[in-house]
Specification:
Chain lengths: 114, 117
Amino acid sequence: TQLLEQSPQFLSIQEGENLTVYCNSSSVFSSLQWYRQEPGEGPVLLVTVVTGGEVKKLKRLTFQFGDARKDSSLHITAAQPGDTGLYLCAGLPYSGAGSYQLTFGKGTKLSVIP
Amino acid sequence: NAGVTQTPKFQVLKTGQSMTLQCAQDMNHNSMYWYRQDPGMGLRLIYYSASEGTTDKGEVPNGYNVSRLNKREFSLRLESAAPSQTSVYFCASSEGRRGVFSWETQYFGPGTRLLVL
């Protein structure tokens, strides 16, 4: 099993602050996805990154895929209460890694306080 | 379009009882998945179906069986429920055009919360 470690596990910030959450592994992934999950609902895809060094922006969210394709980060600028939720990263290993299963991290639970 | 729907939303079972979790998607997707989500464990794949008529084991298949009834429906069965199967179960689907494991978007249902006493 290819492990994805997410940090921090919990994050509580005030509205308007900036934050970064991380997704790290010792394994190489062909692609990496970020999902957001709200209480009582299923995860919803935010972005997919497939190229080492790739940076994608989605309004106030900036996603980066590490050059070595082993890590990713999600940066939120000026957080809003609507950003509250569980952020999950999920990686697809290279075929040579021995597994085709989409691996999920345990998530970062973000609370944005008004 | 409803997307991915799951029934029931909540269920309480006694140890040893059986039940089937239902999942249906209306997006004409080829691939479907069953995950369980436990505190501190993240999402773990139980079974998947690359296409109608095929199913394969995921990371944690023990104690479960699945049926891909048709292209729309993918059910998960617990034959003899155990307390360790208390969890939130999510069904998901994806287009499956690149093969079942590719960087496609997976669309998740709202989940079934199962408590086994």
